[in-house]
Amino acid sequence: MSIPLWAETLELLGDPDTVKVLATVDANGDPHAVVKKSLHAADDGKIHFLEILEASESSRNLTASLWFDRRVAILLFGKEGRQVQIKGKPVKYHISGHLFLDHYVKLRERLGDADLAGVWVIDPEEIIDESFSVREARHRAEHPSFIHLDRIAKPLGETGA
Amino acid sequence: MIALVKTNYRDEPCFDETLAEHPDFPRLIALKIDVQRRGVSYTERAQNAVDPEIHQLRSPYIFGSRDGEIKPLPESLLLRDGTTILTDPTPLDQDPYIVDHIDGRFALIDRGKLLETVELWPKPAYYDKTTTSGLPMSHIVTARPQRLNVFQSSFCYFWTEDQGCRFCDIVTHTKQQRKQLGVPNRLRPEDVRETVAEAIKEPGRFTNLCLTAGSVIKGPRLFDHEVDFYVELLQAIGENFRTKKFPSQLIASAFDEEQLARLYEETGLTSYTSDLEVFGEEQFDWICPGKAKWVGYREWRDRLIRAVDIFGRGNVGTGLVGGVELAKPHGFKSEKDALDSTLSEAEYLAERGVTTVYIVWVPRPGSALCGQKAPSLDYYIRLARGLQDLRVKYGLRVDFDDYRRCGNHPDSDLARLQ
Ligand code: SF4
User: Fold this and answer.
1) Which domains does chain A carry?
2) CB distance A96–B27 less than 8 Å?
3) Which of B53, B101, B344, B353 could form a Cys-Cys staple with B49, CB 3.0–4.6 A?
4) Phi-psi region of B15 (alpha: psi -120 to 50; beta: other; left: phi over 0)
5) What does the domain layout of chain B look like in residue ranges?
6) How far A123 CA lies from chain B's nearest CA (Å)?
């Protein structure tokens, strides 16, 4: 199910200093992760990114995910350690038409003699705040017994021993 | 409301039942195959939503359509994964898929159920222009979403002896195009050069050029004149590029080594395809009598293999009219036998560096096999999977004839995962 992007996610996606990692798996389940600077929020509420290398592993894996209805993950790592993970499905690949041509022209204006293979569209289905403090609090609440006992032991001298 | 088409035109399992037998086969490619197999019919609502300013309407093509008419309908469709569906308008009584326009989008419908939203091919900018000689550029070079097609001449000498391939309607269609649209019989290199120059001004629109035409047996040696035409044309096209070689495919007769070397050395051509159309000598002799008479099955196959020494592994291919091996009365009687035979011959070629692709056989009205039916979707799925598995097994690429640079081969669509 497609969900709207949070304000914080939009902010992270729009910030040029955010590290954006796309993680995919191939048709046999082999994982692959790579930084994709061009991941961005588009007007249609989905996440788009520009594929420059037509035969890249990411593109191959996204094709497999689109064909077999599998999810991919995007990790955004922002300033001050903010981290958001988005899971979603690739739903479209633009290789021609207005949107593609628009990006093609802008990309070449920016990078010079670069090519653009296509524009992938990823439909966000789940957003998870992965900032460490949030994860830790969530973990503590869900698994209160996952703790080494020495961490909750009374300081020496306070025990009855 | 969508009109339901109730017909028993084909007695076979439905799309979902067939696909359920192939869980590792992409649904979108299966859908493409089935749409090619059954054709499409555009509702009035869809036809009204077509905007000739932005959508590519049907332009002159080397082969005809199954409704036998030339009408200003959309050229064809694009699926959301970038897959092209080359298909044509089909009479309703032949059980085509329906293309409708719903909530502002074009949609593929079958038996009242919306299967996929689709896009029409975008019209290239050069389609509105004319050459200096006054011809519409859309009549000189036609477009696919990412490729330019140059159909050098719409004539095939095999037809003059009534030995055209049995699935082919090139001459019937040529006459119709010439009469109704004024499309020239043979292209002038200068018109092609000028049109290509205009086409590639559009940024990001095209990734390769494909040249093809019917066979020309004339010349001091067999096919010499055909080679001359292509050399001249490719040299004219090459004037538009700053590199000697440019991504291109020639689909032509089975040339000898000297002719191939000439094409490779004197032009910017990067790949060579010569279609056997159907595998197996017996089938070939029946389906392609002209090719069989002038070259013969074994020699045609050997010429393909020798072309690998010139163009390199992964740059030589042959095309099949998939399914015609089951045509009546001399074709295989069972789909299993047809598949086994076809894949074993494809393996022979793959081992020697020649890749095989297929198109879905459409028994067109202007062809000798009109009125017959193409085999099942299951057959085409197995054929696509089998041909692609051979490419993987023998480490063969099909970059020059894939989903983007051609778009007419379900098997090479699968190469996107290779
Ligand atoms: S060689 Fe066969 S398929 Fe090609 S144009 Fe001639 S008759 Fe048609």
Assistant:
1) 7-152 (2.30.110.10)
2) no
3) B101
4) alpha
5) 15-120, 125-417
6) 13
